[in-house]
């Protein structure tokens, strides 16, 4: 397991993020996108040798899976309109019960953003996943939250199972609540031979970003 270390410069950036939260800035509160526009906040996250997915949560900050952002200092973010931005990986956690990375790209701050929900998910909640499976871009799949008992295995703890389709390239993709259009989690894995996938819930991501839930 990779040792989790944050460089001092990134601690300062994280401090700025936390200050903006306490001062009431719009970080992780993005715009209220209509269901037909949800893909506008989703991005393709390109790294050497592969890609994943992610979502803009406001002010140039993006979240993706920790295993997408680990061991790299920067990624290429591709928006739905094809525009590309360099993003700096502020931190990436794979292990310690989590699988989340925070990416910052100030030049991408003007992209559409989605709100990150800090509320717990519930069984039967209707959700939509937007991601980049294999060679497809910004593909949508629909499903529901299957259980409120968190799945724990390997580096993960408390992942929420969904009955929707996900495959390689979708890791880090946003899971949206169909009713509110808020991001309720990010997809990080599938359960082989079951048809179920697993997400890090928004409540856990909020705690990692310093939000009180």
Secondary-structure blueprint:
Layout: H1 8-22, E1 42-47, E2 50-58, E3 61-64, H2 66-69, E4 74-78, E5 84-95, E6 98-104, E7 126-131, E8 139-144, E9 151-153, E10 156-162, E11 174-177, E12 183-191, E13 196-201, H3 202-208
Walk me through the structure.
- With 213 residues, the chain is mostly beta strands.
- It has two domains: 8-114, Trypsin-like serine proteases (Thrombin, subunit H); 126-207, Trypsin-like serine proteases (Thrombin, subunit H).
- 12% of the residues lie in helices and 39% in strands.
- The protein contains three helices and 13 strands.
- It has helices at 8-22, 66-69, 202-208; strands at residues 42-47, 50-58, 61-64, 74-78, 84-95, 98-104, 126-131, 139-144, 151-153, 156-162, 174-177, 183-191, 196-201.
- The strands form two sheets. The chain has a seven-stranded antiparallel sheet. It has a six-stranded antiparallel barrel with strand order 1-2-3-6-5-4.
- It is globular and about 40 Å long.
- The model is unreliable at 1-6 and 14-28 (pLDDT under 50).
Reading the helices and strands in chain order gives HEEEHEEEEEEEEEEH
By CATH, the topology of the largest domain is Thrombin, subunit H
What is the number of independent domains? 2
Average of pLDDT: 84
Under the CATH scheme, the architecture of the largest domain is: Beta Barrel
Stretches where pLDDT is under 50 for at least 5 consecutive residues are: 1-6, 14-28
Terminal-residue CA separation: 29 Å
CATH superfamily of the largest domain: Trypsin-like serine proteases
Count of strand segments: 13
